[in-house]
Amino acid sequence: SFTGENFASRMKALLPAHVFKMIEDIGAIADSEKVAVYLVGGMVRDLLLGLPNVDLDLVVEGNGIAFGTKLAKELTGRIYCHEKFGTANLFLNNGLKIDIATARTEYYEFPAALPTVENGSLKQDLYRRDFTINAMAIGLNHHNWGQLIDFFCGCSDLRRKLIRILYNLSFVEDPTRIIRSIRFEKRYDFTIEEDTLRFAQKAIEQNFLERVSANRLKEEFVLILKEKNMIAIFKRLKEMDIWSRILPELELTPGILHFLEHVTEDSSQLTSLLGPVDPGLLTLLLLCHQADEKRVAANIERFQWSKKYNLVLMKTAHEKKKIHAMLQGKDVPISKIDLLFRDLSNETILYFYIVSPDPEQKKIINYLRLRKERIPVVSGKDLKMLGIKPGPVYREILEMLRTARLDGIVQSRAEEISLIKNYLTKEEML
Ligand code: CTP
């Protein structure tokens, strides 16, 4: 089942020049090393869809690790091998990543024939993969350069916009594929094929997702956070009764979905005042909206997000009540808001903005504006010039200046200096 089209020109048109050149080099190295090498997986799928994708996935018929080692040397990069699985991950100095898998040539099955001619081991490797659209290959050796190899009608499923497993036990063997199927469905606006959907539902009902390690679930979840159609994926996960199995601590309520849907328009008002925001962390903060500290802690315990994520999630959960109460207060001085807000991450501030009613949103915006405008001009250096002996008093003075500036008590250098003098005479009198 080979199609006639040669994909070399398509690769050349779609891929950045240095990536295409590298694929040509890989083909040449494969020839000189006398192994059959194929481009597989996501890149082939995306090439057929006309989408750029620079993550290289290779299958080697022969010794994948030896070939990877050769590539690391020729293309300059670092290699991480998993001997047990015959796989290797290459991190090239130019920033590109290459995953390599070994398709074991099973000579005992082909005592006479050359397995490479039959593509026997490649076919087996592809058959063990997740979906037909991800199980196509493109030959990289000279004799089959650019040739699409499509054993399982992946091309036809792409055209029909279908996500289809290759064998009935696929979801049982790897339940994370249930989550992947939804990610691809929403990314490409495809449909999960009827039988595939039934197998997925059955695996869900039979609690196969509960067997997956927290770390693998986290990896899948992080991939979803990067998807453009993340919210559609969330909704589908909930609809298929998957959400509560993978994120039992964080309930996906209609309210939270509403916040998520309005993140972009809400943040546009704040980004110039706030600076960079990590969208993944913001999403997690919103997902924690209904969860109390105990639940957030349980989620962190299970998923072990990054150090920064863990800290921000816990701190936000911890300060939530205090901050809402403060924002609801009447005539709260800016310096009071600052006391709670100065140590909050940009993501946390944006989170409070998104979930707060209009009057509180106005207070947050006003605070962020003033925080930028009302900055003391007198610095530590100036204090030295004023003849003040360096010590802990510097911190006290600078802190006092910040407060006075924020609340509009001093508005010029002269006023700052007189405030300092006033403060010091009071100190002396004590
Ligand atoms: N794969 C699989 N089962 C999984 C994960 C991956 O069979 N649970 C196979 C698929 O053939 C997939 C390839 O490994 O195409 C590479 O995996 P990955 O890089 O995770 O996925 P991509 O298909 O490249 O998807 P993405 O565009 O999200 O990177």
Sum up the structure in keywords.
10 strands, Beta Polymerase, domain 2, Hydrophobic Seed Protein, eight-stranded mixed beta sheet, two-stranded parallel ribbon, 24 helices, Methane Monooxygenase Hydroxylase, Chain G, domain 1, alpha+beta, 430 residues, single chain, elongated, binds cytidine-5'-triphosphate, 58% helix
Can you put this structure into words, describing what you see?
The protein is of the alpha+beta class. It folds into 4 domains: 2-160, 2-Layer Sandwich (Beta Polymerase, domain 2); 173-246, Hydrophobic Seed Protein, CATH 1.10.110.30; 273-373, Methane Monooxygenase Hydroxylase, Chain G, domain 1, CATH 1.20.58; 380-429, no CATH class. The chain has helices spanning 8-14, 17-33, 42-49, 64-75, 115-118, 120-127, 154-159, 170-173, 176-188, 194-205, 214-225, 230-239, 243-246, 254-261, 263-274, 279-287, 293-303, 307-328, 334-341, 346-355, 358-373, 380-385, 392-406, 413-429, and strands spanning 2-6, 36-40, 56-61, 77-82, 87-92, 97-103, 137-139, 147-149, 162-163, 191-192. The strands form 2 sheets. The chain has an 8-stranded mixed sheet. It has a two-stranded parallel ribbon with strand order 9-10. Helix 2 crosses helix 4, helix 15 (263-274) packs parallel to helix 21 and helix 23 packs across helix 24. The longest helix has 22 residues, at 307-328. It is elongated. Residues 107-118 have low confidence and may be disordered. Cytidine-5'-triphosphate binds next to helix 9.
